[in-house]
Amino acid sequence: MGAEVMRGLTATPKTLSPWLFYDEAGSRLFEAITRLPEYYLTRTERAIFAQHADAMIASAGDEPLKLIELGAGTATKTGLLLRAAIRKQNTVEYVPIDVSQSAMQAAKARLESEIRGVHVEPRVADYTDGLAEIPAEGMRRMVLYIGSSIGNFEPEDAVEVLREVRKRLAPGDWLLLGADRVKDRQTLLHAYDDGAGITAEFNRNVLVRINRELGANFNPRLFRHLARWNEAKSRIEMHLESVTAQMVIVSALDLEVRFAAGETIHTENSYKFTDESIRRIVERAGFRIERCWMDALAWFGVYLAASY
Ligand code: AVI
Predict the structure, then answer these.
(1) Are strands 235-242 and 223-230 parallel, antiparallel or unpaired?
(2) CA of 177: how far to CAs of 194, 255, 291, in Å?
(3) pLDDT tens for residues 5-59?
(4) Measured between alpha carbons, how far is 107 from 8 in angstroms, rounded to an integer?
(5) What is the pLDDT of residues 154-187, one digit of tens each?
(6) HEC states along the chain?
């Protein structure tokens, strides 16, 4: 974390990597975001699962499947797929992988009490170690990478992440990928700048975390949350804008950081895809897309891709 903060705050323009958002408070704020009326992604993807989970499981062949989820969080949407798998194969093994131990424990307790026939084996790991945790043995596997988390990577890195997944899969295994689609600018901007200010708090939480973990003295109120639609790059950008000229000290790094009034820290990109742009990424990673499901407005896509 120190190395990342040092790199980002001494760069021009200043940046902080989005993985820094997800301490306990940040993970809770993200969960709150997923319930906001403006944040259409979660409910839209859930509606796609509610309508098509049986078809998704059926399209992955006749053999029983084991489900593995990268960055599972509290796994609130996954129940729909687990129930569909149980309708087909009576029982299902589910391996959620996430950095948050508490989220994993909560997911295990909730899913095993709510769904008869599910066996949950959580792995606490970040996404790179998490890939190594993909169980190798036995059954056909379906790796879930949902929520459009793939959109938080640069396109080249997204290809690399999926290649790493692909390397750990065998022919006949599957990837189920959720991808948020390009849509009108206002809908996109509101999703990342909600009326209740939860996304602003999520964005500023990175400063609170740096204060706590690296002994910095950021005043989060002196940084304004900004969401911008970058049309040319097809991405929502989040920034923190310094409202005044100021200097911040990060004691653990022995670092003084100067901000001009209006200077920004770029904290996140969230790429929005077209059918072609997501297909290109998935195919360059060595998968073959077999099917895609969307909601009625075509706001979100879920892609089933074969490892071959
Ligand atoms: C986790 N990820 C897919 C979210 C997104 O929409 O890019 C993170 C997020 N950032 C702001 N709101 C939500």
Answers:
(1) antiparallel
(2) 26, 40, 11
(3) 999 999 999 999 999 999 989 999 999 999 999 999 999 999 999 999 999 999 9
(4) 33
(5) 999 999 999 999 998 999 999 999 999 999 999 9
(6) CHHHHHHHHCCCCEECCHHHHCCHHHHHHHHHHHCCCCCHHHHHHHHHHHHHHHHHHHHCCCCCEEEEEECCCCCCCHHHHHHHHHHHHCCEEEEEEECCHHHHHHHHHHHHHHCCCEEECCEECCHHHHHHCCCCCCCEEEEEECCCHHHHCCHHHHHHHHHHHHHHCCCCCEEEEEEEECCCHHHHHHHCCCCCCHHHHHHHHHHHHHHHHHCECCCHHHEEEEEEEECCCCEEEEEEEECCCEEEEEHHHCEEEEECCCCEEEEEEEECECHHHHHHHHHHCCEEEEEEEECCCCCEEEEEEEEC
> Rounded distance, CA 125 to CA 132, Å?
9
For the CA of 191, the nearest atom of ligand 1: 12
Residue 308 CA to ligand 1 centre (angstroms) = 30
The closest-lying atom of ligand 1 relative to the alpha carbon of residue 236 is: 7
Angle at 22 between CA 247 and CA 208, to 5 degrees: 30
| pTM for the model | 0.96
CA dihedral (129, 130, 131, 136) in degrees, to 10, reads 110
Ligand 1 centroid vs 191 CA: distance in angstroms?
Answer: 9
